Amino acid sequence: MSHTAHIRSHRKPRRSASKIAMRAGVAGGVLGTLAVTGASGSANAAEPVTQTLELPTLTADLAAQVAQSADVTQQAAANYELQAERDAAAAQAAKEAKADLAEAKKKAEEEKKKAEEAARKAAAERAERAARDAQRATLSASVEVSSGSGSSGSGSVSAGASVSTSTATGSAAAVVSFVRAQVGDAYVSGGTGPNSWDCSGLVQAAFRQVGIDLPRVSQAQSTAGTQVSLGSLQPGDILYWGGAGSAYHVGVYVGDGMFVGAQNPSTGVVLKPLSYDPPSGAVRVL
């Protein structure tokens, strides 16, 4: 026995039987639990866990819906294609209609211009005939006043005029022969032959036969040579109606009180006496 054993505070406490039994029971319970857990873990380790995924089953209804959706998609595509074709056809039709409209407008404008030109020519011809009639009346009155007896009836311009009746020779003969050959041809405004003429076109063509290039229009032809009186005309002289430089008509004197001229659409190219349409003046270029 230790020398301190008799000291109460240094003695080891004695464990009671009840405490020892309780501790033994707790330990046994723990060991039992561990054993059960180990066994369970071994069993679980021996049996692998398997997870099953359920895939959707393609039923008859779902297949029908898929087929119907495909049909709808195909029909929509066909409708889009048809609409595109219709749009293209409409665009082409609109383009063609626009072109047709432009062509129709162009033709209408051309017809309008033609109608305006025809009306202008007709008005010019009427004005020309009216001016000739007025000039003829003025000249006739002048002849009556100066002679006291009117026209001599022999194709002369006035009773006292000494119009040449000599036969044309040389270049004058060629000019006279040319214009006489055109008598009966048609009158066409702007015509320069060979079968239709206007007044200045005929005169220009006649003098071209002898190498003389006259101006194209009557205004310029009325001042192309030397002014001569109507009482001393010679074959080949150019007659004009209206003022010198502003003449509206020309012709060629062919002798014997006669002239040839492209008068108008009604008469064409004619051979007439001076009294038929008395001229205003004359120029000589030969």
Core attributes:
two-stranded parallel sheet; 286 residues; endopeptidase fold (from Nostoc punctiforme); 8 strands; six-stranded antiparallel beta sheet; alpha+beta
Structural description of this entry:
The protein has 286 residues and is an alpha+beta fold. It has a domain at 131-284: endopeptidase fold (from Nostoc punctiforme), CATH 3.90.1720.10. Helix content is 50%, strand content 12%. The protein contains 5 helices and 8 strands; from the N terminus they run αααββααββββββ. The protein has helices at residues 17-46, 60-147, 170-181, 199-208, 218-221; strands at 186-187, 196-197, 226-228, 238-241, 249-255, 258-264, 268-273, 281-284. It has a 6-stranded antiparallel beta sheet, with helices on both faces. Strands 1-2 form a two-stranded parallel ribbon. It is rod-shaped. The model is unreliable at 41-45 and 139-165 (pLDDT under 50).
The gist of it:
This protein is an alpha+beta fold and 286 residues long. It has a domain at 131-284: endopeptidase fold (from Nostoc punctiforme). Helix content is 50%, strand content 12%.
How much helix is in the residues?
A: 40-55%
Strand order of the largest sheet: 3-8-4-5-6-7
- CATH H-level superfamily title of the domain at 131-284: endopeptidase domain like (from Nostoc punctiforme)
CATH topology annotation of the domain at 131-284: endopeptidase fold (from Nostoc punctiforme)
Structural class: alpha+beta
Give the uncertain stretches in residue-range form: 41-45, 139-165
Average residue pLDDT:
77
What gross morphology would you assign?
A: rod-shaped
**N-C termini distance:** 190 Å
> Any idea what the CATH architecture of the domain at 131-284 is?
Alpha-Beta Complex
CATH class of the domain at 131-284: Alpha Beta
Q: How much of the residues is beta strand, in percent?
A: 5-15%
H/E element string?
A: HHHEEHHEEEEEE
Largest sheet: 6 strands, antiparallel
Number of helices in the DSSP assignment: 5
Number of strands: 8
